């Protein structure tokens, strides 16, 4: 890829047809109105502009265009005041008033009908395009020049919509491809005038396109020779290309600023957060997510009232308007889930609130078809990616705000009744999951359908997240309540079972993303920590727990070759595992070889791992552990539970190098021999002195 490539390989200068003012990506009335707008901005204060038209029709008939200002004076219309909607836009734009609150200053003005309370015609981005700084135009063009050619884009979009988009279902394919076609036809002469002359959806589209391409490159086969042209430097990889594309998309958003945001702005922000998270920049991902949430709130995605306003304002067919409403509510629910998931995982504050009666909750509807209204999905209809998200939300994700409140409240004893109640509700909901995603004996009739090839992996990802919610629910109480220890252990084992199945459904190209790292790390650390602190409890599942830890270690070792997060996590987990093995007596033989996990493929234990335990152990001695009856000389409840993701990415948790042999640990777990000396067992990081990791360091002999 070179910087002098044309954006999308298709944007070029073309002469306008005589008598025609249509320019792709630019509102038709705007193309003929710009000279008059410049004149209006040059006139003395007090001169009024024509009012906006709410019924402007576009020659393309596309739903991606929003209403535009009709300021064509050649029609001989003598308009003397701004319309109400235009005046409100100016107030929101210049003073930052919310357009979504009827009790704000802007809401009061709207109620009493004061459209002319504030006029600043030159601040309208459409009308002030001639005032656009040249450096902004140059910067915008320099960024969009970094887009690959249309041929490369088409290759990557096939991968994205077939195997990537299902993870979050952020992008609607029909809308996206419509916008791509419009963007590809934008003439160079239009780009020279700067991004402000473009329709808002099209103006921000390159930012979304950059993020879609970057996210796709995390999954796309790295040896695809068709994409070699994207690597402009010796030794450059597709991952390097992905990082540059994602950074360019972020620069587009920063250049455009916070005014005039669109759904594409929010989508690009969410995909950017996902990319940063996959790259190990978890704190940066959290901040990016927060920005996307604020952008969504500016658009009113969190309220059904604004959804109704948007539906009335945007032109298009009935089906386009209906799907737009669904898209907006879906994106807000995704943001809400992400917000509380990251808040719980990282111990950070949340920005959203649980959906209430003011929010139009998204429905479980059939896959979109062009020109067809959204239709409720019946049991016989194949699930969609968003069906999976909704199933997870109804079963478990909706309890994340409650868990976050308990977590931030300090795990008070008086809150344990809520913990018990939520646990019962989630376990009941798990038993009520739809047949196609239930944990035991799921209905797989949809798995082989052409449009559902993603479903087997989505099912396991769903179960991992659902059981993570249970794990997070009990985490604050694992060192104070025996019942929470038992429940957390079982939830952790379910996570590891789902992750094992997901691993064998995956290909090496999938290992660059964070999903299997985060879930496995959290589960293994909590399981190991519980047995280290309470070795005489839950002995009936000790063998299964050790098997799960070992299989998790094997997966992290493999993932570490592709993902630096997995490599860091592997060192921490191996350290804990070594400590646990030294605490357990009776293991006279090494555990079964774990070499099978080195390469994804058919697994001889897959039938057993599938819906039950990790399978029978090869050596029977593992089912006869002699656990020491050891009592601590301190109160275990005084030790705070570990938060692996927070500790790893915020407190920079790491482990010493384990390099010398130890016959009790299979070298295949480490890629070599191991040494469990005091130095190698030391945990480094910026964690607090009273943390779980400080306590572990104090126990090193």
TrEMBL record:
GO terms, molecular function: DNA binding; zinc ion binding
Feature: compositional bias, Low complexity: 51-63
Location(s), subcellular: Nucleus
Annotated ranges, domain Xylanolytic transcriptional activator regulatory: 285-368
Region (Disordered) location: 1-72
Principal subcellular localization: nucleus
Record GO biological process: DNA-templated transcription
UniProt keyword list: Nucleus, Transcription, Transcription regulation
Entry GO terms, CC: nucleus
Protein origin, superkingdom: Eukaryota
A Pfam family: Fungal_trans
Official protein name in the record: Xylanolytic transcriptional activator regulatory domain-containing protein
Lineage: Eukaryota, Fungi, Dikarya, Ascomycota, Pezizomycotina
């Amino acid at each position: 890829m070179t910087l002098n490539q044309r954006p999308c390989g298709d944007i070029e200068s073309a002469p306008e047809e005589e008598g025609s003012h249509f320019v792709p990506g630019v509102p038709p009335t705007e193309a003929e109105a710009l000279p008059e707008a410049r004149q209006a901005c040059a006139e003395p204060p007090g001169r009024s502009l024509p009012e906006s038209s709410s019924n402007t029709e576009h020659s393309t008939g596309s739903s991606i265009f929003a209403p535009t200002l009709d300021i064509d004076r050649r029609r001989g219309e003598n308009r003397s005041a701004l319309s109400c909607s235009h005046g409100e836009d100016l107030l929101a734009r210049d003073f930052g008033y919310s357009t979504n609150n009827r009790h704000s200053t802007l809401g009061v003005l709207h109620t009493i009908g004061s459209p002319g309370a504030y006029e600043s015609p030159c601040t309208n981005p459409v009308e002030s395009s001639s005032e656009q700084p040249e450096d902004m135009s140059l910067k915008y063009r320099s960024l969009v020049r970094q887009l690959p050619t249309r041929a490369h884009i088409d290759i990557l979009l096939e991968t994205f919509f077939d195997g990537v988009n299902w993870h979050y279902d952020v992008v609607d394919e029909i809308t996206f491809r419509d916008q791509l076609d419009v963007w590809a036809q934008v003439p160079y002469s239009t780009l020279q005038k700067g991004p402000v002359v473009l329709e808002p959806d099209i103006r921000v589209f390159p930012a979304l396109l950059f993020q879609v391409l970057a996210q796709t490159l995390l999954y796309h086969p790295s040896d695809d020779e068709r994409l070699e042209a994207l690597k402009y430097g010796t030794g450059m990889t597709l991952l390097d290309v992905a990082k540059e594309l994602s950074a360019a998309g972020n620069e587009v958003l920063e250049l455009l600023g916070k005014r005039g945001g669109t759904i594409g702005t929010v989508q690009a922000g969410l995909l950017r957060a996902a990319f940063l998270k996959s790259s190990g920049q978890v704190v940066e991902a959290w901040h990016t997510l927060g920005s996307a949430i604020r952008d969504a709130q500016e658009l009113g995605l969190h309220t059904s009232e604004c959804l109704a306003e948007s539906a009335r304002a945007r032109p298009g067919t009935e089906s386009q308007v209906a799907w737009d409403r669904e898209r907006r509510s879906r994106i807000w629910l995704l943001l809400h889930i992400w917000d509380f998931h990251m808040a719980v995982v990282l111990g950070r504050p949340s920005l959203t609130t649980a959906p209430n009666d003011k929010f139009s909750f998204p429905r479980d509807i059939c896959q979109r078809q062009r020109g067809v209204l959204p239709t409720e999905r019946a049991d016989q209809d194949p699930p969609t990616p968003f069906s999976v998200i909704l199933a997870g939300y109804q079963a478990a994700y909706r309890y994340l705000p409650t868990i976050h409140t308990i977590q931030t409240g300090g795990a008070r004893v008086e809150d344990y009744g809520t913990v018990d109640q939520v646990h019962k509700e989630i376990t009941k909901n798990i038993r009520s999951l739809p047949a196609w995603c239930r944990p035991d004996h799921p209905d797989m009739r949809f798995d082989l359908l052409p449009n559902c090839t993603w479903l087997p992996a989505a099912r396991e990802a769903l179960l991992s997240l659902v059981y993570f919610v249970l794990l997070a629910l009990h985490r604050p109480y694992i060192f104070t309540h025996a019942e929470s220890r038992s429940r957390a252990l079982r939830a952790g084992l379910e996570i590891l079972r789902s992750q094992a199945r997901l691993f064998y459904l995956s290909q090496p190209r999938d290992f660059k993303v964070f999903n299997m790292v985060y879930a496995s790390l959290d589960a293994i650390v909590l399981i190991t920590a519980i047995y280290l602190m309470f070795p005489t409890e839950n002995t009936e599942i000790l063998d299964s727990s050790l098997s799960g830890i070992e299989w998790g270690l094997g997966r992290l070792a493999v993932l570490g070759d592709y993902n630096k997060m997995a490599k860091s996590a592997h060192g921490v987990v191996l350290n804990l595992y070594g400590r646990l093995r030294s605490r357990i007596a009776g293991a006279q033989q090494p555990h079964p070889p774990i070499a099978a996990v080195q390469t994804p493929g058919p697994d001889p234990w897959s039938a057993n791992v599938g819906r039950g335990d990790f399978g029978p152990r090869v050596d029977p001695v593992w089912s006869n552990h002699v656990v020491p009856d050891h009592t601590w000389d301190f109160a275990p409840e005084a030790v705070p539970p570990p938060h692996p993701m927070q500790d790893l990415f915020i407190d920079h948790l790491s482990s010493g190098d384990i390099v010398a042999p130890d016959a009790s640990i299979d070298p295949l777990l480490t890629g070599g021999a191991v040494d469990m000396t005091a130095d190698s067992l030391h945990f480094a990081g910026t964690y607090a002195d009273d943390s779980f990791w400080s306590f572990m360091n104090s126990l090193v002999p």
